[in-house]
Amino acid sequence: MKKNQGNAESATAKKITKAQRNTSSSGVVSRTAQKNAEKLRSNATKNKTAKKSTKRTSAKTKKASVKKTRRKGARKQTLRTNAERIVSSTFSNGEQCSVRIPKTEKGTLRIIPIGGQEEVGRNMTIFEYGKDIVIVDMGMQFPEEDMPGVDYIVPNISYLKGKEKNIRGVIFTHGHLDHIGAAPILLKQLGYPPVIARDLTLALIKKKLEDQDPGSSEKMRTISVKNINRKIRLGEFIANFFEVEHSIMDSMGVALVTPVGTPIHLGDWTINHDPVDGNKITYEQLNKFPEPRILMLESLGSIKQEANSEKTVQHNIEQLIQEAKGRIILGMFSSQIKRIKLLLQYADRIGRKVALDGYSMRTNVEVAQQLGYLKVSKNLLIPINEIDRYPDNKVLVLCTGAQGEHNAVLNRIVTDNHRFIKLKKSDTIVFSSSIIPGNERSIQRLKDNLYRKCDNVIHSSILDVHTGGHATAGDIQTVVKMVQPQYFIPIYANYFMLKEAGNLAVKTGFSPKRIAVLDNGGIIEFNKKGSRIRKEKADASYVFVDGLGVGDIGHVVLRDRQMLAEDGMYVITVLIDGKSKEIVGNMQVTSRGFIYVKDNFDLVNETKVHVKKVIKKTTSKDTKMDYRQVENDIRDRVGEYLFQKTQRRPMILPVVIEV
């Protein structure tokens, strides 16, 4: 009897342990799991008490016990099922909460844009069919002004935890940072799944990996799309590739053929109606893919009616170079290899030497040369430290920094921190780039400072010296009519731009019911019966990168940084005698970024008075001191006083030490 009793108790203990282990991938125990574990524990206690008070069990009791065990087993299975459904966690107002996302049903295609649906950047889309997963792009996002100390932001891949072995490939559409910038971090976290891209994109990704972690590019498994007509089977997906027009070489789109639908993803794209080389890319062939076709269009230009042609831009820049009597310093995106190639060819024809400045500019040109995309004449390129050896009207500088970045070339030039370039009134500065959203203020500040030192500053508001690689409103309507999709999903833009892209499709006669404008983490599914948008969402919260730290700072840390940046810090250090509970020695008050202590003795002394009142009120010789409570009370009282006196809210850090 005792042996049976011990076995029963052991079995119950195991059930309790298993119930407690039913957690999400992030370690969050579901409420159901907690409640059931408590019930099991309670039942175990009751059973133990009952067995001590009686030695015999009737047949009726045994039968009831069997039923109860079966119910517990059923409950245990339910807990296990619930735990399997919890695949990610999100943050709401700083609190972590579990999100239950059912497994993809058989015969269902699931599409999840993890980023790029509510901002410019962080582009990444997950395609899932059965146990096969294909990812398109892994981009980074530049931090916003309210994110002090953050270097950049990467997509959240918690949805993929536990599914790493199902990833058949990561397809990169092109080499811009908002599409490859997160690759060094995410590829490593996912165990280096196969990477599929064209040669220039692969080279830029490898360079990115080496810059962050030397030797890591050797772990990459790569598939080069040398033949754009190549098809690659990725589990149940058949990847078909096609050329797209964009501002960087080797851009491509992908159509993923599945048994229930064909997502057609163009990456970043445009229609160049007057290409410099005469090679016009069309998208008519996309309507040949199997139905239902699910067209996914980058929509950054949905609010723009028209764009300049690259031919016009090239003509204007060449004219500026020809007419300039001094040096030309041209700021541009280092990824625009096509434009760099044309500028190098023109400079060679008219006899201007070219100096490249900026790490990414030199690196990208070097990569393009190695791949054979750039052929540079001998003696055309000169080191930046030799530009003073040549007449000013024989020098062209191609550099980075047109986004107003703090340590980039143009900013160092205008602040006189550049080692080899000192601005002259005769210099001509050209901004051959668009404005990335979020950089408006830094670019305007850079322009203002350049105008103070130079008479010739040229930008797109004055002359067409740049055209973006993004489709206009008319281009979007053209491709929607050309491809004739059964579904339309606008992607890779701010939300209002996605909505505008949807409106453009409706104007072509497309049914609004077949347009899906998704949030980050939104889930849309397709099967033989049609489509649906799930109410659940994958975790798409920000993952901040700060130095070598990835995801180790959250919204609470950013809030503290903002508070420190805006109102500074106020530290109050108090020593308290452990026996008498009285203050020992002098109280120390330290201010950083709030007030200058030597000029504010009255404020500091009044602070000390408030601290003494708090300690006197909350401590007693006969009771044990709760130091945490004392610190909280000091923080609240001093905070109210400082706001009353200064209308500012510094971060208050009381430190109470028992001696």
Note down, in words, how this protein is organized:
- By secondary structure, the protein is of the alpha/beta class.
- It folds into four domains: 91 residues; 283 residues, Metallo-beta-lactamase, Chain A (4-Layer Sandwich); 149 residues, Metallo-hydrolase/oxidoreductase (Rossmann fold, 3-Layer(aba) Sandwich); 91 residues, Ubiquitin-like (UB roll).
- Helices cover 35% and strands 22% of the residues.
- It is built from 16 helices and 27 strands.
- The strands form six sheets. The chain has an eight-stranded mixed beta sheet with strand order 9-8-7-5-4-3-21-22.
- Helix 6 packs across helix 9, helix 7 packs parallel to helix 8 and helix 15 packs antiparallel against helix 16.
- The radius of gyration is 32 Å and the shape is globular.
Task: Compile the SSE list and pairings.
Elements: H1 2-21, H2 31-53, H3 59-85, E1 86-92, E2 95-100, E3 109-115, E4 124-129, E5 132-136, E6 152-154, E7 167-171, H4 177-180, H5 183-189, E8 195-197, H6 199-212, E9 222-224, E10 231-234, E11 237-243, E12 252-257, E13 262-265, E14 293-298, H7 310-323, E15 328-332, H8 337-350, E16 353-357, H9 359-371, E17 395-399, H10 409-414, E18 428-432, H11 440-453, E19 456-458, H12 473-483, E20 487-491, H13 495-507, E21 522-527, E22 530-537, E23 543-546, E24 549-550, H14 555-567, E25 569-576, E26 583-592, H15 601-618, H16 627-646, E27 651-658
Parallel strand pairs: 5-7, 7-8, 8-9, 13-14, 14-20, 15-17, 15-18, 16-17, 18-19, 25-27
Antiparallel strand pairs: 1-2, 3-4, 3-21, 4-5, 6-23, 10-11, 11-12, 12-13, 21-22, 23-24, 25-26
